[in-house]
Automatic annotation (TrEMBL):
Keywords (A to Z) from UniProt: Disulfide bond, EGF-like domain, Membrane, Repeat, Signal, Transmembrane, Transmembrane helix
Biased segments, Polar residues type: 1148-1160
Domain of life where this protein originates: Eukaryota
Alphabetized InterPro entries for the sequence: ConA-like_dom_sf, EGF, FA58C, Fibrinogen-like_C, Fibrinogen_a/b/g_C_dom, Galactose-bd-like_sf, Laminin_G, Neurexin-related_CASP
Ranges where the EGF-like domain occurs: 444-481, 857-895
Residue ranges of the TM segments: 1099-1124
UniProt-listed Pfam families: EGF, F5_F8_type_C, Laminin_G_2
One cellular component term from this protein's GO annotations in UniProt: membrane
Name of the molecule in the record: Contactin associated protein like 3
């Protein structure tokens, strides 16, 4: 060893060096440092004056010269880069210093034109510590107690290092008042923190840390008590644990004390696979004893693998002992038997195979009593050789055959005929043969401790990799990092969803769990509705109450979810209402309030204003507006009158929301009565979703602080551009970098370097990306893989290098829309940029950056297709909305049918007067009617449902069509008619008049003067009216039924008889929940209401199906073009787990409400 100064000339730069006789991977250089040393760095150099140097190597450390432990950088990178020539010195500082006496360097690769050659130097200093040896007995312990006069402090720390070969035992014991005790105990190689109440009670586990702690290597343990919690650290991993406050001192009890550390020597061997095997001679053992006696211990994570095989003296007979689905299976010839199960838990398991005098026995974990016995009809003996773990690849004699997987794991304590196998002799090639083994060490790694699976994903592992099960977590990806849910109702709307229950994840891949909310998309704003436990009006009477009544409101979401949801919304509100009779409220103008409420984060702060007023005003809405029932007071209820009155309004100050509790005081007087209501919390807008910046030059960019995504990083954003290339994002380090760019008009590239070379993930689009439409990019990099998603295309992935991973180490600023070199900048818009769930405020930075503008208009090019049924997309600053003025439909996407139930006496008459009056129903003049003085054709469409048996204009009788038409006009006109999917039929009518302006249109019963000019047959049918459902009625660009139902006061309609809006025309009208979407966590709440289910029965009604439409025209002119198309209905069905087409990232379950499905519904028609 030497000091941390530069290597001395006689060690590295001197002549000579180490070069073994044979250059292969079974060579090593071992250094005895003479005492335990804290090693901080190593330096290597090639052999002097030669072409011999190492290009990569492994480092091993040991206290005893046995039981070596491989040093790993960042917990996974095992190999170190070596030299590129024989003269230069390459030094590596160890991220975590290693404490050991012995160091072993194992060459992996070397100069192909030379041999293994090395000069080595280590850096460090002596390490001294007191040690104590404990034998595990309960008769004695090492005890520490505070002296009686010792001052108690709010912080206690106990720190120690331990090593053990046993996987169970007690390390620490702490006692508190009232019989409480805490203990740290090893259980199956894990450290458990247990809480006990009394000596006989069952312990409660508070925490579990570490794994494989019985590997006979030193492990660091620290316990720090800070008032009512513990910081428990095992090696480099810390967990914070809440504990009872009764603990006042520590007491450590361990076995018989010896102030030295005597370690048993146990040589293990690692089978890393896939060419690993150990071959031992077995002929002498079996011949001398006339049977078989083999024993060993193994540990593995794999479910399958060959443990042992040997041939039998019988011709072709073979014994196989192997793992299958984590069960130990013994197979002889074609007969097999399962012995034990769940053996892939990483623990040491013992196996003994014995055959004596015709009796075969196999025992697994003898202490636990596992085993099996058999009496085979043939002798079981070893023919010549035993093979552990696998078979030689070059064995042509078929002495060893392995039809199973190779074994990957560790073995130790091998015995043949009750004699220990000396594995050091095997290592020195004095006994048996082997391939690809690591002898005198167990290289098992627990990749699930600590778990790399995020958000509650369940970790499982094999010998070489780990896997995360993300089901029920609400997250996806190789490490359950990315949320499967959108962050707001606004985002769901822009996926094309309609109103319903959705899970939203307010911080994306952050730690906050998803929450279930209701998204109301029926208005121009998209509302997020969060319910609490009491949204109904609640009446109070003095007889059952004390001086005050206090009520607390519990919300359906957790505190952190609620706080973030409110903060990222543009507007929030909550109704607060108080109805009163002789019950004063705020005691205005100058008295102390009788009532108040608490609102805001946590338990909330006291608020003394009421709904509709301003914070701190001690007023109600009427006081702000100046219209209270008594002008001397600022609340209606403060007038203290005998008549019922009310103070209500909306609370809109986000810092005071939500309402947490309500205290009502003036309710104890005789005659006092009151009722209160606190509505659900409602918020709209998403600051993050529309946060955008426009880059108008390729040299413009925004910069932010360095991105920290060392082991796990996700980046998501939307972009639109007319440029064919440009860099979206870049962050540089000394060698590392991360970049996302548009490399061509059809390709996005995610590239990065984490120290093991650049890696690229590409996604190719079949459509141009420079189409000035929004496109979504989602990139993720974790310890297992890198992935890139573009819009709804399948994700492209690249696995992480097999040798593990490095931390992503960046140090420059994060550039958005450009690069540090100002080359290949992006020209266009970037929106909703999020890094690890945190939104970057592009607009705020753009306001102070030249060449970049905040915001980005023009959303209809991307989202305009959501506006259906002639709905028109209208731009907004943040988003868009659908104008349904020209549509017979309504709703946020103009896809909600406007339907009404008609009785026999119901009549709706729409009068066409002047063109300007027709424009009330639409945002544009109905030019289709008034573009010509002579009408050449009219479009009339509607949907109906009825069981009525009379008809005007069309009759459907027993499936055969007939038409009642009179020659009302004298010149020839073409009449086209189609019902459902039947063939269209054409009719010629004659008329001697001309078309002039249409005067009126009648739905339902034809009254009075409207029927005077009709044919008697039609007049008779028209007078009977229509009984059933009419929906989405349109005449050219006019929607008469919609006008009558939604705008009766401003439209030229006359309504006679009962008319009520109904959902009877909806294709899912039998299911009131059919228009609601419920996005559940996978595997949860399968019984709840699910989305967009269509559940109606298709049944043909015999007889006559009728609808009456009467059009009176000036000059005896009428013509029509009827377009009929059938609206599909379906038989009852439950479709579970079906993904919606709008986005494959967000699967929904489809199911109808069986209680609301009609068993026999009439057909629906769309004309």
């Amino acid at each position: 060893t030497s000091s941390p100064a530069a290597p001395s000339s006689q060690n590295l730069t001197g002549a000579g060096g180490w070069s073994p006789l044979t250059s292969d991977r079974y060579q090593w250089l071992e250094v005895d440092l003479g005492e335990r040393t804290k090693i901080t760095a190593v330096a290597t150099q090639g052999r002097y004056g030669s072409s011999d140097w190492l290009t990569s190597y492994l480092l091993m450390f040991s206290d005893t010269g046995h039981n070596w432990k491989q040093y790993r950088q960042e917990d996974s990178i095992g190999s170190f880069p070596g030299n590129s020539n024989a003269d230069s010195v390459v030094q590596y500082k160890l991220q975590q210093p290693a404490v050991a006496r012995f160091l072993r360097l194992i060459p992996l690769d070397w100069n192909p034109s030379g041999r293994i050659g090395l000069r080595l130097e280590t850096y460090g200093c002596p390490y001294t510590s007191d040690v104590v040896s404990l034998d595990g007995s309960s008769s004695s312990s090492l005890v520490y107690r505070l002296s009686p006069g010792t001052r108690r402090t709010p912080r206690d720390v106990v720190s120690l290092k331990f090593k053990t070969v046993r996987n169970s035992g007690s390390l620490l014991h702490a006692e508190g008042d009232g019989g409480l005790s805490l203990s740290l105990e090893l259980e199956r190689g894990k450290l458990q923190l247990l809480l006990r109440r009394g000596s006989s009670s069952e312990p409660r586990r508070l925490a579990s840390l570490g794994s494989l702690l019985d590997d006979q290597h030193w492990h660091h343990l620290a316990v720090e008590r800070r008032s009512s919690h513990l910081n428990l650290t095992v090696d480099k991993h810390t967990e914070r644990v809440q504990i009872p406050a009764e603990f006042s001192h520590w007491e450590i009890r361990q076995g018989n004390v010896t102030f030295s550390c005597v370690e048993p020597v146990s040589v293990a061997v690692t089978f890393p696979g896939p060419q690993s095997f150990l071959q031992l001679p077995g002929a002498s053992a079996s011949s001398s004893s006339g049977g078989v006696s083999v024993g060993f211990q193994f540990r593995t994570w794999n479910k399958a693998g060959l443990l042992l095989t040997f041939g039998l003296p019988q011709e072709g007979g073979v014994v196989w002992l192997y793992l299958n689905e984590a069960r130990l299976r013994l197979q002889i010839h074609k007969l097999w038997s399962d012995i034990s199960s769940a053996l892939n838990d990483g623990q040491w398991h013992s196996v003994e195979l014995n055959s004596r005098r015709g009796r075969l026995s196999i025992t697994v974990d003898k202490e636990e009593g596992g085993g099996a016995h058999a009496s085979p009809t043939f002798p079981v003996a070893i023919q010549s050789q035993l093979f552990f773990g696998g078979c030689p690849a070059e064995d042509d004699g078929q002495e060893c055959r392995n039809p199973f997987n190779v074994f990957q794991g560790c073995m130790r304590l091998l015995t043949l005929d009750n004699q220990d196998v000396d594995l050091i002799m095997v290592q020195q090639k004095e006994l048996g043969t082997f391939s690809n083994l690591q002898i005198d060490m167990c290289g098992i790694i627990d990749r699930c401790s600590p778990s790399r699976c995020e958000h509650g994903g369940r970790c499982s592992q094999s010998w070489i990799a780990f896997h995360c099960n993300c089901s029920d977590s609400g997250y996806s990806g190789a490490t359950c990092h990315s949320s499967v849910y959108e962050q707001s109702c606004e985002a769901y709307k822009h996926n094309g969803n309609t109103s319903g229950h959705f899970y939203i994840d307010v911080d994306g891949s952050g730690p906050i769990r998803p929450q279930l909310v209701y998204c109301n998309m029926t208005e121009e704003n998209t509302w997020m509705v969060i319910q609490h436990n009491n949204t109904e009006a609640t009446r109070l009477r003095p007889s059952s109450l004390g001086n005050q009544h206090s009520v607390h409101f519990d919300y359906a979401t957790e505190e952190e979810q609620l706080s973030v949801a409110i903060s990222q919304s543009e507007h929030c509100e909550q109704e607060l209402s108080y109805q009163c009779r002789r019950s004063r409220l705020l005691n205005t103008p100058e008295g102390s309030p009788f009532s108040w409420w608490l609102g805001g984060p946590g338990a909330g702060r006291v608020q003394t204003y009421w709904g509709g007023a301003q914070p701190g005003s001690q007023q109600c809405a009427c006081g702000l507006q100046g219209d209270c029932v008594d002008p001397q007071h600022y609340c209606n209820c403060d007038a203290d009158r005998m008549e019922w009155t009310e103070d209500s309004g909306l609370l809109t100050h986000k810092e005071s929301l939500p309402v947490r509790s309500l205290v009502l005081g003036d309710i104890q007087r005789p005659g006092s009565e009151a009722a209160y209501r606190v509505g659900p919390l409602r918020c709209h807008g998403d600051k993050n979703f529309w946060n955008a910046a426009f880059f108008d030059k390729e040299t413009s960019y925004l910069h932010f602080p360095t991105f920290h995504g060392e082991l796990s990083a996700d980046i998501s954003f939307l972009f639109k551009t007319t440029a064919s290339s440009g860099v979206f994002l870049e962050n540089l380090g000394i060698k590392d970098f991360i970049r996302i760019e548009l490399s061509s008009s059809t390709q996005v590239v995610f590239s990065f370097d984490v120290g093991n070379g650049p890696l690229e993930v590409r996604v190719e689009s079949s459509v141009p990306l420079d189409d000035n439409r929004w496109h979504r990019v989602r990139a993720e990099r974790n310890v297992k893989e890198a992935s890139l998603r573009l819009d709804d295309l399948p994700a492209a992935t690249q696995e992480a290098p097999a040798d593990g991973h490095f931390h992503l180490q960046l140090n420059s600023q994060l550039f958005i829309g450009g690069t540090a070199s100002r080359q290949k900048g992006f020209r266009g818009c970037i929106r909703s940029l999020q890094l690890n769930g945190v939104t970057l405020d592009l607009e705020e930075r753009a306001r102070i950056t030249p060449g970049v503008r905040p915001g980005c208009p023009g959303h209809c090019s991307s989202y305009g297709s959501f506006c259906q049924n002639r709905g028109r997309c209208v731009e907004r600053v943040n988003g868009f909305h659908c104008d349904c003025g020209l549509s017979a439909y309504t709703g946020v996407f103009c896809n909600t049918e406007v339907s009404a139930s008609f009785k026999s006496g119901t009549s709706v008459s729409y009068t066409f007067k002047e063109p300007y009056e027709l424009s009330r129903n639409s945002s544009a003049l109905p030019s289709s009617i008034y573009s010509d003085t002579t009408l050449r054709g009219e479009n009339v469409s509607l949907s109906f449902r009825t069981s009525q048996k009379h008809l005007a204009l069309l009759i459907n009788k027993h499936g055969e069509q007939a038409f009642i038409l009179k020659e009302l006009v004298s010149h020839h006109c073409l009449f086209l008619l189609q019902v459902d999917q039947n063939p269209r039929e054409d009719f010629n009518l004659t008329s001697d008049g001309e078309f002039n302006a249409v005067k009126s249109l009648v739905l339902g019963k034809v009254h009075g003067e409207s029927s005077d000019d009709l044919d008697p047959d039609l007049a008779r049918l028209g007078s009977l009216g229509f009984t059933g459902c009419l929906s989405v009625v349109s005449f050219n660009s006019i929607s008469p039924l919609k006008a009558a139902l939604l705008h009766p006061d401003t439209s030229p309609v006359i309504i006679t008889g009962p008319l009520a809006r109904s959902n009877c025309g909806s294709s899912a009208s039998a299911n009131p929940y059919a228009a609601e979407n419920t996005h559940h966590l996978s595997g949860r709440r399968r019984e709840g209401p699910l989305v967009n289910a269509i559940r109606t029965d298709s049944a043909l009604i015999g007889g006559l199906i009728a609808v009456v439409i009467f059009v009176v025209v000036t000059g005896l002119a009428i013509t029509a073009r009827f377009l009929y198309r059938r609206k599909e209905t379906y038989r009852n069905q439950e479709v579970k787990g079906v993904n919606q087409d709008d986005s494959p990232d967000f699967p929904f379950n489809n199911q109808a409400d069986p209680q609301n499905a009609s068993s026999e519904n009439p057909k629906e028609y769309f004309i």
